[in-house]
């Protein structure tokens, strides 16, 4: 059966019973129908957080074959609950761009899913729409200020870095001209659209720890300069109050359930190749306040989402993870070893052996943060005993724990060995989480530390534009911000064609964007797309609904 067909076989529990199981009385939640709810921020007990064990699920460098971080995260949480460890899985919300594009949804797969699958993959509780509206309100206020004859700000339209957003893949909107139609229609200027998941508002929502913190971060959004080179922020337009009002519900974490009827929180959805790639701080804190174990994931490979999870999110919210689950598949490792995409189901220990250096590099990266790890093999029916033995021997040679997890087919039952390994790591008290760098370090040093230590680059080159932007960052007094490097997810380098464990390469920083509201800088490497396009045959072609309201084609 497809993921959607499996999801439809499950009889969902009422969300009130899920909230009671989670630890929040039903009369304190805000229900969205029978199977979704918003949780009150007042339910986050800061003292209880210290008693929860935070587990991060990451992966090797992504491949077209898929690795299954979300499926693994859900399956691990189910298994921990089976072992009587009260556990909540915390995930990101899917973006409509991938849902209707090429990647599909993001609710797990097989018998390791969060439900209701259709709702979560579509409009859910309206968080993305609220972020989109708050973002575009600021865009409208900027153009209104430029148009106004009474404004004293005198914004220079040529310096505006703020675009508009929409939660769809629409390449035609990447670069546009606004303000056409005469003097009453605004001042013509070039701008564009990004996808909503790439919005700084999304990044801000995912790092904010309260309404007041959210409002302050929104006010600190850098917009551009006046004609006399004075920096302009959203607070100069008095925008932060109204923007916060639009986000008053979106800031509350969303409660849903797993296939096995356990609580799951899904909140926020920034991409990891252009933003921090993790769910909200508030969603994580909410789970930790009510669970013995909290399982969360970070987007793409460890070099992207997990590095940002540790260096940005954990430092910002003072989180101390206890263990990392590094997800891999045998077919993905064979791809990194040079096997053709169409031949990944064919037994090939030679390609697997050649692909192991990618896994090895990610394990080395985890060790740099002084957090213990366990390798999780996301099992497929095409995996052979010889291939499994090879990767087990590799783990043994590196003195790293390893478990085979068959979560797609068996749910929590398929991850019991992994869950026991995770419990052993937590009980060993071997985690001594240490960030890779201190925020006060100079910007160049922060970039080069990540590029050389995590990616494995020889050194970093900067374009003349990036060098000029470094000077601008210094003049704005923003050198103390962490860096959120935008890079391809397909390779440890900034070249998506360099698979496995590339060496002797140079990282080139093309430009550095300022996300002062979110509280980080964005060095951009390679060709990063903030507004993806649709494939030749988008997934939307297969999505439909009948007269009874039954949806088909989602995956």
Put the structure in a nutshell.
With 555 residues, the chain is an alpha/beta fold. The protein is 35% helix and 17% strand.
What does the model show?
The mean pLDDT is 95. The strands form six sheets. Strands 1, 2, 3, 4, 5, 6, 13, 14, 15, 16, 17 and 18 form a twelve-stranded mixed β-sheet that branches. The chain has a three-stranded mixed β-sheet with strand order 19-20-21. Strands 7-10 form a two-stranded parallel sheet. The chain is of the alpha/beta class. The termini are close together. The protein folds into three domains: 302 residues, P-loop containing nucleotide triphosphate hydrolases (Rossmann fold), CATH 3.40.50.300; 120 residues, 2-Layer Sandwich (Domain 2, N(10)-formyltetrahydrofolate synthetase), CATH 3.30.1510; 83 residues, Formyltetrahydrofolate synthetase, domain 3 (Roll), CATH 3.10.410. The chain has 19 helices and 23 strands. The longest helix is centred in the N-terminal third of the chain and has 21 residues.
Beta percentage is 15-25%
Rounded Rg: 23 Å
- Average pLDDT for all residues: 95
Number of continuous helical runs? 19
| Main β sheet profile | 12 strands, mixed
How are the secondary structure elements laid out?
Elements: H1 3-8, H2 15-22, E1 30-31, E2 37-38, H3 46-49, E3 53-59, H4 69-82, E4 87-91, H5 96-100, E5 108-109, E6 112-115, H6 117-121, H7 127-147, E7 164-166, E8 176-178, E9 189-191, E10 193-195, H8 200-207, H9 211-219, E11 222-225, E12 231-233, H10 240-246, E13 254-258, E14 263-266, H11 281-290, E15 293-297, H12 302-317, E16 323-328, H13 330-336, H14 349-368, E17 373-378, H15 385-397, E18 401-405, H16 407-410, H17 416-427, H18 443-455, E19 459-462, H19 464-475, E20 506-515, E21 520-525, E22 544-545, E23 551-552
Parallel strand pairs: 3-15, 3-16, 4-14, 4-15, 7-10, 16-17, 17-18, 19-20
Antiparallel strand pairs: 1-2, 2-13, 5-6, 6-13, 8-9, 11-12, 13-14, 20-21, 22-23
């Amino acid at each position: 059966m497809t993921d959607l067909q499996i999801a439809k076989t499950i009889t969902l529990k009422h969300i009130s019973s899920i909230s009671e199981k989670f630890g929040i009385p039903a009369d304190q939640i805000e229900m969205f129908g029978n199977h979704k709810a918003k949780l009150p921020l007042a339910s986050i007990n800061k003292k209880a957080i210290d008693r929860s064990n935070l587990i991060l699920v990451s992966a090797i460098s992504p491949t077209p074959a898929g690795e299954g971080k979300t499926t693994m995260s859900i399956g691990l949480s189910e298994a921990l609950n089976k072992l009587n460890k009260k556990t909540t899985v915390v995930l990101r919300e899917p973006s409509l761009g991938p849902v209707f594009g090429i990647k599909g949804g993001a609710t797990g797969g097989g018998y390791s899913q969060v439900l209701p699958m259709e709702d979560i993959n579509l409009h859910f509780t309206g968080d993305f729409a609220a972020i989109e509206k708050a973002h575009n309100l600021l865009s409208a206020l900027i153009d209104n200020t430029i148009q106004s004859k009474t404004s004293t700000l005198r914004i220079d339209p040529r310096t505006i870095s703020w675009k508009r957003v929409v939660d769809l893949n629409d390449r035609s909107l990447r670069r546009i001209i606004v303000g056409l139609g005469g003097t009453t229609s605004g001042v013509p200027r070039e701008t564009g659209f990004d996808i909503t998941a790439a919005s700084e508002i999304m990044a801000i929502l995912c790092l904010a720890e309260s309404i007041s913190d959210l409002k302050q971060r929104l006010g600190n959004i850098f917009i551009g300069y006046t004609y006399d080179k004075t920096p302009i922020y959203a607070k100069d337009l008095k925008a932060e109050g109204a923007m916060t009002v639009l986000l008053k519900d979106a800031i509350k974490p969303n409660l849903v359930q797993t296939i096995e009827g356990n609580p799951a929180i899904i909140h926020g959805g920034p991409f990891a190749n252009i933003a921090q790639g993790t769910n909200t701080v508030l969603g994580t804190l909410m789970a930790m306040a009510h669970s013995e174990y909290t399982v969360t994931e970070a987007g793409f490979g460890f070099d992207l989402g997990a590095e940002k999870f540790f260096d940005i999110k954990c430092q910002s919210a003072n989180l101390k993870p206890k263990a990392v689950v590094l997800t891999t598949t045998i077919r993905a490792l064979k791809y990194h070893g040079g096997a053709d995409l169409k031949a990944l189901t064919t037994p090939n220990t030679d390609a697997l052996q050649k692909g192991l250096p990618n896994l090895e590099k990610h394990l080395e990266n985890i060790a740099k943060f002084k957090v213990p790890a366990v390798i999780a093999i996301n099992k497929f029916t095409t995996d052979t005993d010889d291939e499994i033995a090879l990767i087990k021997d590799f783990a043994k040679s590196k003195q790293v724990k390893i478990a085979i997890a068959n979560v797609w087919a068996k749910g929590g039952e398929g991850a019991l060995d992994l869950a026991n390994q995770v419990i052993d790591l937590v009980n060993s008290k071997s985690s001594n989480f240490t960030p890779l760098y201190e925020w006060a370090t100079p910007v160049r040093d922060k970039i080069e530390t990540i590029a050389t230590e995590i990616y494995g680059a020889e050194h970093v080159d900067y374009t003349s534009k990036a060098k000029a932007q470094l000077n601008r960052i210094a003049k704005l007094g923003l050198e103390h911000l962490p860096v959120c490097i935008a890079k391809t997810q397909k390779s440890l380098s900034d070249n998506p064609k360099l698979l496995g464990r590339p060496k002797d390469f140079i990282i080139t920083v093309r430009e550095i964007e300022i996300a002062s509201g979110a509280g980080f800088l964005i060095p951009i490497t390679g060709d990063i797309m903030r507004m993806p396009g649709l494939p030749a045959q988008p997934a939307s072609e297969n999505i439909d609904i009948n007269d009874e309201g039954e949806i088909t084609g989602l995956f």
